[in-house]
Design a protein that fits this description.
The chain is an all-alpha fold. The protein contains two helices and no strands.
């Protein structure tokens, strides 16, 4: 056995008549091991408690960070909703585009009619001019 496990009070050899008996020596060894195991268990319990406290603090910090992130996401959603409210609905936009296309078609038709009327007036004016020149020259 290692002398590190033997308590300092029982360093004497168990075979000597002035030392402890074998049962006393083993009882002392068991008591010392029990004391060390108890100290180790207490130290581990303390370490576990410290880790639990640190874990709880980390969870609280993570929850606060997540809450802040969700607040910013909700704010962004609100901005998108406000922006979407200012947009023109698709049906209304299509209706306006159709009305503009109809007006453009009307303008194209009237410009064609105006061009053919102008052409008719020019031919009529040319014919009148030829008639006047023919009348004057005769």
């Amino acid at each position: 056995m290692s002398s590190a496990l033997i308590p300092s009070a029982t360093v004497t050899t168990p075979n000597r008549p002035d030392g402890p008996t074998w049962p006393e020596h083993f009882r002392a060894l068991l008591d010392e091991m029990d004391r060390r195991f108890t100290a180790d268990i207490k130290a581990q319990d303390k370490a576990v408690q410290i880790a639990m406290i640190a874990s709880e603090k980390a969870v609280v910090k993570a929850e606060i960070a997540a809450e802040k992130r969700f607040e910013s996401v909700n704010e962004f959603r609100g901005q998108l909703a406000d922006q979407a409210a200012t947009f023109m609905p698709r049906a209304e936009a299509e209706q306006r585009i159709a009305a503009l296309a109809e007006k453009i078609d009307d303008l194209k038709g009237s410009s064609r009619a105006g061009a053919s009327a102008l052409f008719g007036y020019l031919i009529g004016a040319a014919g009148l001019a030829i008639a006047i020149i023919a009348f004057v020259t005769r």
